[in-house]
Specification:
Elements lengths: L1 E5 L4 H12 L3 E6 L18 E4 L5 H8 L4 E4 L13 H22 L3 E7 L7 E4 L3 E3 L6 H5 L15 E3 L12 H18 L4 E7 L1 E3 L12 H10 L5 E2 L6 E2 L1 E3 H13 L6 E5 L5 E2 H12 L5 E2 L16 H7 L7 H8 L10
Helix pairs in contact: 1-7, 2-3, 3-5, 6-8, 8-10
């Protein structure tokens, strides 16, 4: 197949390019090499792919990139928590308007398949169960509880701490950041386009992706790369709350393989699919694993909190296993040992 990877110079996008090239596909990349992301063209760009330098708002570049394409892996996005409403117009322009333009051109070009990089952020908080009152999706945590160090969400009927459970794709989206809102809007746009004759859409809801080529410390970096950057500077990684926040850390190689499986399936698997590791680990586990791999200063648990953060979210990826044949292959310990010394993308500031 001839496959267009949008954002194919970025962290996840470049690994998708490598995976697809290795599988024998003809790969085209469109990426604007945004100077807020890349100080210079990365040295890891795959020479077997063709590159169009431009963004999705540049329709002439997009038309050129889509020529002869059979399917699209849509990875281009502004990611991370960013700076809240200050970044909202840029997130909406890049993530939502860019996706709408891409979908219009895909439909016009007769492209029949699109894999969309979505995010676990669309769920907000994860799934929980009260020992007395059963399954719950809690409201945002109360500042008064956070101030007292009561970090786990509480049952709104009996005030007991809720027990976290793996979240599946049937959970109602509840985005709690600008980024999360744009990701669920991307899904909505793509599925509307599919119903109106556009490409069949497989939305992959990535959980906490880590691995080589992550950006260094920035407002848009993930927790794993921020901790790596602290350790590289000889500083202890700082862990918010009590470090007990549960996440699903999935290696970028597994995420790239999930994209390839979705693109290569004989018939498209439409809908949303969690892409996780099948394991849950705390943020303190993450910090401790990196410290152990580097023989460095121990993490500092600060007790600090950010009101918009969710407490626990980790994936059930069973739907992806059934429909796509996806199972994560990189164990947490092995992946973290490799990540501790992996190259990160150069800082831009």
């Amino acid at each position: 197949m001839r496959i267009l990877v949008t954002g194919g110079a970025g962290f996840i996008g470049s690994h998708c390019v490598d995976e697809l090239v290795a599988r024998g596909h003809d790969v085209v990349v469109i990426d604007d090499l945004d100077t807020a992301v890349h100080r210079r063209a990365p040295d890891y760009l795959n020479p077997k792919a063709a590159y169009v330098i431009g963004d999705l708002l540049d329709e002439a570049s997009l038309e050129r990139a889509l020529r002869g394409v059979d399917a699209v892996s849509h990875q281009a996005a502004l990611v991370g928590m960013g700076r809240g409403l200050e970044d909202a117009p840029r997130y909406a322009r890049v993530n939502d308007v860019g996706t709408a333009i891409l979908l219009r051109h895909c439909a016009a070009a007769g492209i029949r398949r699109l894999v969309l990089a979505s995010s676990m952020a669309v769920y907000g908080e994860g799934a929980y169960r009260c020992p007395r009152h059963g399954p719950q999706r809690p409201a945002p945590r109360r500042i008064a509880d956070l101030e007292r160090g009561r970090f786990d969400p509480r049952c709104d009927r009996c005030d007991l701490a809720l027990a976290p459970e793996a979240i599946d794709e049937e959970a109602t989206p509840d985005p709690r950041s600008v980024y999360a809102a744009t990701k669920i809007h991307q899904e909505h746009l793509a599925f509307v386009a599919m119903r109106e004759g556009g490409p069949a859409v497989t939305a992959l809801r990535y959980h906490n992706v880590y691995g080589p080529r992550m950006p260094r410390n920035s407002p848009y970096a993930g927790v794993a790369s921020i901790m790596r950057s602290h350790l590289a500077a000889g500083e202890p990684p700082r862990v918010f709350e009590d470090g007990g926040q549960l996440r699903d850390f999935v290696h970028v190689g597994d995420v790239a393989r999930a994209n390839a499986l979705a693109l290569e399936r004989a018939t498209p698997a439409t809908g949303a699919f969690n892409i996780g590791s099948g394991e849950r680990h705390t943020v303190l586990d993450l910090a401790s694993a990196l410290v152990a791999a580097l023989g460095s200063v121990p993490p500092v648990v600060t007790g600090a909190y950010r009101p918009g953060d969710v407490r626990h979210i980790f994936a059930s990826s069973e739907r992806a296993a059934t429909a796509l044949g996806y199972r994560a292959e990189v164990p947490f310990g092995e992946g973290m040992r490799a990540f501790a010394t992996a190259s990160l993308r150069e800082a831009v500031a």
